[in-house]
Q: What sequence folds into this?
């Protein structure tokens, strides 16, 4: 299984919205509604933000939302805040699991 | 509080063996899979494998099959990651995480392999 494809970086100003894409294949993202997203701040463990494409764990801000179309899943962060600056990783079921390469989000 | 607590940082030489641990608390340990994730310095997350502590069913990423061994002792709510012979390239932070969605993460164990 190959890693899922994410943009290396995305940046925007506070208050704006961003969308991070996660492109897989018909063997993973395209077949299974089992895509999750993780946020990782420097020096910290990752944190689950979205699971099963569009479900938010308790305590995660409603500014974070997930979706999927075909072989591409997306994470949208609305009303961007300084604290959202972090690395974001998608992960899909593919018999086992596979992560994306990660996207660095910069708040300008 | 649901927690996964990992063992401390390790410094090893190439060729040495190593086992790191991940202890769960605050939930019924045997009903959640526990997985391991590697993060090499400055790099992204890599899914290594996952084990069901209840029945020891284990799945490995092809990239890690044969390179590491995942095991568990459910009597003490602990899952292990073992290397029989470390390489310099095993230098990384290793995280354990709970369940199919990895909803709870350990704090990480830094493994440094250097001659």
A:
């Amino acid at each position: 299984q190959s890693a899922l494809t994410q943009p290396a970086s995305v940046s925007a100003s506070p208050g704006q919205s961003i969308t991070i894409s996660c492109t897989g294949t018909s063997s993973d993202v395209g077949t299974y509604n089992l895509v999750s997203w993780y946020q990782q701040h420097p020096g910290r463990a990752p944190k689950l933000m979205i699971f099963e494409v569009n479900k938010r764990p308790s305590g995660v801000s409603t500014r974070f939302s997930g979706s999927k179309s075909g072989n591409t899943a997306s994470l949208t962060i609305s009303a961007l805040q300084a604290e959202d600056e972090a690395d974001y990783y998608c992960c899909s079921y593919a018999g086992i699991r596979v992560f994306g390469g990660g996207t660095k989000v910069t708040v300008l | 509080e649901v927690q996964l607590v990992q063992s401390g940082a390790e410094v090893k030489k190439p060729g040495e063996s190593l086992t790191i641990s991940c202890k769960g608390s605050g939930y019924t340990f045997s009903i959640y899979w526990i997985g391991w994730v590697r993060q090499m310095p400055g790099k992204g997350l890599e899914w290594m494998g996952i084990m069901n502590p209840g029945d020891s069913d284990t799945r490995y990423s092809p990239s890690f099959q044969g390179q590491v061994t995942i095991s568990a002792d459910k009597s003490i709510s602990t899952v292990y990651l073992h290397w029989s012979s470390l390489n310099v390239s095993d230098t990384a932070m290793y995280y354990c995480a709970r369940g199919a969605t990895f909803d709870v993460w350990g704090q990480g164990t830094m493994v440094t392999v250097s001659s």
